[in-house]
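hey
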């Protein structure tokens, strides 16, 4: 099977290469060069918005795994047009290339941000879609294009909505990095952990390795036309997360509380039985084990 991964130099893609490269012919496309070993020498340097480059890269592919995205909620607020350009126009382009190259299956990495403020938890796939952030809107728009291309052109697709995933491969220098990356960096540098608000807001954290495992199962399965949450199914408050860092870190960890983030989602945890039922997937890496990865 020949697989093209967009965003091939990213965090998730690095674990996808590791998982899939021995069994499949896997290449990637990205605007930056990979720094992780498994992806090295396999990623073409190009933009998903460049249709010719996308068609060339996807030629003879059986599956496209579309991970490339503008990934920051904060940046989408600062520049919604840039966010839509990559996440909507870039996704349309990737779908057009998939049609042009007669790719059999399209796997779209969406986000749990498409749900917006939970009306109930745990959030299942049937939960209303009402994104709060521009990022959530652009990821949801991408989902609708995937479905419409699927029905218009008879393309097999799977949509995956990850909750908050982490790994030591997320870029710590990015001003938009997630809470675990920030906490890990602060802990290593002996700085205080900044909790925004009371810290009782909860999230569903999972290791990027587990996301890659679900995507890889989806790529080789017969399942098509389905949307899956990808989470641990367990909620962790930001305070509990800070406590875990204190437990794991060899140094003393201090915590400060700062102003709450505006329009932050209070509680988020996924209902994840559909992926288990149809694809036999459950997360394997527990949070404490995953966090220890940062100190090795
Ligand atoms: N990290 C999370 O917690 C999380 C949660 C839910 C969904 N997601 C989604 O998972 C996917 C992967 O996330 P990640 O954490 O690996 O992000 P990442 O930033 O590590 O990887 C994304 C990659 O896409 C590339 N890219 C961006 N714009 C591009 C363009 N125009 N052309 C080609 N490449 C481009 C980037 O250079 C980067 O290497 C994204 O689609 C993101 O929206 C992430």
């Amino acid at each position: 099977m020949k697989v093209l991964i967009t965003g091939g130099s990213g965090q998730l893609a690095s674990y996808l290469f590791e998982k899939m490269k021995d069994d499949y012919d896997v290449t990637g496309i990205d605007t930056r060069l990979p720094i992780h070993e498994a992806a090295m020498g396999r990623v073409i340097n190009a933009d998903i918005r460049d249709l010719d480059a996308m068609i060339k890269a996807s030629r003879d592919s059986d599956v496209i795994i579309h991970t490339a995205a503008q990934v920051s909620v904060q940046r989408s607020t600062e520049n919604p047009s840039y966010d839509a350009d990559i996440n909507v126009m870039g996704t349309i382009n990737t779908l057009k290339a998939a049609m042009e190259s007669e790719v059999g299956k399209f796997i779209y990495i969406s986000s749990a941000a498409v749900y917006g403020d939970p009306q109930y938890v745990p959030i299942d796939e049937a939960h209303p879609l009402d994104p709060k952030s521009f990022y959530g809107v652009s990821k949801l728009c991408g989902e609708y294009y995937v479905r419409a291309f699927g029905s218009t052109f008879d393309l097999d697709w799977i949509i995956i909505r990850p909750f908050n995933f982490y790994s030591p491969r997320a870029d710590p220098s990015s001003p938009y990095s997630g809470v675990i990356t920030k906490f890990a960096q602060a802990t290593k540098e002996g700085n205080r952990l900044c909790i925004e608000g009371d810290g009782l807001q909860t999230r569903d954290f999972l290791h990027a390795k587990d996301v890659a495992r679900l995507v890889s199962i989806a790529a080789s399965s017969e399942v098509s036309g389905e949307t899956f949450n990808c989470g641990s199914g367990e909620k962790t408050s930001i305070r509990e997360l800070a406590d875990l860092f204190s437990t794991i870190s060899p140094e003393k960890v201090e915590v400060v509380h700062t102003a709450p983030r505006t329009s932050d989602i209070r509680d988020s945890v996924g209902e994840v039985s559909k992926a288990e039922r149809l694809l036999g997937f459950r997360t394997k890496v527990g949070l404490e084990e995953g966090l220890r990865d940062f100190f090795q």
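Residues 55 and 97 are 5 Å apart (CA to CA). DSSP finds ten helices and 13 strands in the chain.
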